[in-house]
Amino acid sequence: MLECRNIQKHYGGVAALKGVNWKLLPGEVHALCGENGAGKSTLARILCGITAPDDGEILLEGHAVNWPGPQAARQAGLGIILQELDLFAHLSIAENLAIGNARLEDGAWVSPSALNDAAHPLLRSVGLELDPTLLLERLSVSQWQLVAIARVLGLDAKIIFMDEPTSALTDDAVERLFGLIRQLKERGVAIVYVSHKMNEIFRICDRVSVMRDGEMIATATCAATSIDQVIQQMVGRVIATTRREKLSGTGQTLLEAHEISTRKLRQVSFTLSRGEILGVAGLVGSGRSEVGRVLFGISPITDGTITLEGNLYEPYDPHDAVAQGIALVPEDRQKEGLIPGMSIRQNTTLASLPKYSRSSWISRAEEVAASTEALADCRTKFADQELPIRSLSGGNQQKVLIGKWLLTHPKICFFDDPTRGIDIGAKDDIYRLLAELAGKGLGIIWVSSELPELLANAHRILVLHEGRCLGILDAATATQEDIMRLATGHHAARS
What we know:
By secondary structure, this protein is α/β, with parallel strands linked by helices. The chain has 17 helices and 22 strands. Helix content is 33%, strand content 25%. The strands form five sheets. A six-stranded mixed sheet has the order 6-7-8-3-9-10, sandwiched between helices. A six-stranded mixed sheet has the order 16-19-20-13-21-22, sandwiched between helices. It has a four-stranded antiparallel sheet with strand order 2-1-4-5, with helices on one face.
């Protein structure tokens, strides 16, 4: 159905794709795997007309094509859900669904009622019961992801590229997406599924292709290979995929939240010890991120109390929270964590600049020394600190963001889905880093949409449902089923 021959792409002196050959069959779900920077997204963007190749040939149903831009590819039946969502916060949901859809962009005049009527079934298909006139800026990251999926479904495409479509989705939304994929497959639509989540790939995909360093390493049916084999092909080393040995916390209470309530939380209580990794699980809208916003002085508490090292903790803004030893690694690194136009060095030291300043002047030598150490501690791969942060892969951008907050020397780090959309090798680096931080006595609060990683790395797991804590489980004995029962409100338990 779709084929590429000898596709090459260079950015400056760096080869992003090195003569890639690849085929997509009609009605199949075909996974593209590889570490960040392997070339997966570049290949997808070239095949969908967003990026022009330097060399090579693309064939659609046996005919050579040369896309002048993404609109031509869309008109030919190719749709793509980008990892970095190309949506517009200042427009409504319905307007975002219409952009790029020739059937909804009919003429120079827009009919709001017709637009909303067309939006309703698309939103329902992805499980969003929202008013189409709502501005996108009012939605959560996971809801943005579902809107992006709905937009591509509205194109009625015959080939759909999904670049990390579940990176911000919780299990209930993932199940709905898998149901949609099965329906599309039955209609003969071919799906290219770019993901780092091995369990998902081997559950829904027919074939899997592995890329490494801009080259296509291998293609096989999922039945003829294994997760371990694919991972080794991706990273060239063995990665732990089971529960890892964890150091126990010191038992000394670092932070205690007693029946805290906000606009989104209702009487949530928990404790955090020095050296402990406390996981936080829950469905979309459960209040997971809100816990971090409270600790970081963003969301005000309406009731309840928090103590930090035995003293009442009432941060009046993020600056005060940082001064008292709290760090927040946000869920959306592009919008809330990093500044794309600034260098790797500048992003790394941004939260701790006063340490390298004298009378409003920054000591470049001290700043470079600090960023070099932080980047090394986080195992960040980069060519030059002065390159823009956007030149790094998603995994390395996330490591820069973590390094940025570690330079503030926090007592407690709140990580909001830190492994979202990054490859298995980078995930493993982050798992090891968080374990090392806990080993040094830091308190870690870790929100994740991936239950296996919480079970493998956390000491305890706090489970939220509709703003309430329904249980705190021992990760050593808990199962995914235990967590999901609480997350869906089936029964409450506390250990």
